[in-house]
Amino acid sequence: MRSSLDHTLAFHQTALRLRAERQQLLASNIANADTPNYRARDFNFSRTLQAAMARNPQFDAKLLVTSPQHIAGAASNTPSGGPLQYRTVQQASADGNTVDMDVERNQFIDNAIRYEASLTMISGQVKGLLTAIQG
């Protein structure tokens, strides 16, 4: 039972962390809607989640350490090791900016709703466990 519970909670923890990272990325796209030559970025959530759960070495982006005095760390431009992708331009802009506010707002709201749904699901599971334990 414990391993099943651990796996379930680890899945939700990873999913929530990735949702939070994606929300920051989408907010960054919205904030830079008027920045010339800014390219909207996102990542494939389901593929990144699968890779994070499987601990696929392909997504373990590590910084190159060329000296013993360097501090090893994870690459900061990738969501939990997953690759960032640029959005396909739907409508060209004169300043080279690729942010489409309609797309970004929709993705932002969709991601926020899915984040809240995950929290609700976790809360329900924990309440069910507490009810089973307390009787």
Report on this model:
55% of the residues lie in helices and 3% in strands. The protein has 135 residues and is an all-alpha fold. The longest helix is centred in the last third of the chain and has 34 residues, at 101-134. It has one domain (2-134).
Q: How is the topology of this model organized?
A:
Elements: H1 2-31, E1 41-42, H2 45-54, E2 85-86, H3 101-134
Antiparallel strand pairs: 1-2
Alpha carbon gap, first and last residue: 18 Å
Give the total of beta strands.
Answer: 2
Main pleated-sheet profile: 2 strands, antiparallel
Mean pLDDT, to the nearest integer, reads 83
User: By helix and strand content, what is the structural category?
Assistant: mainly alpha
List the secondary-structure elements in sequence, H or E.
HEHEH
Large-scale geometry: flat
Radius of gyration: 19 Å
- Strand order across the largest sheet: 1-2
Helix content, binned percent:
40-55%
Report the β-strand fraction as a percent range.
under 5%
What number of domains? 1
Helical run tally: 3
- Contiguous low-pLDDT stretches (5 residues minimum) are 56-61
Which structural traits does this protein have?
flat, 55% helix, mainly alpha, 135 residues
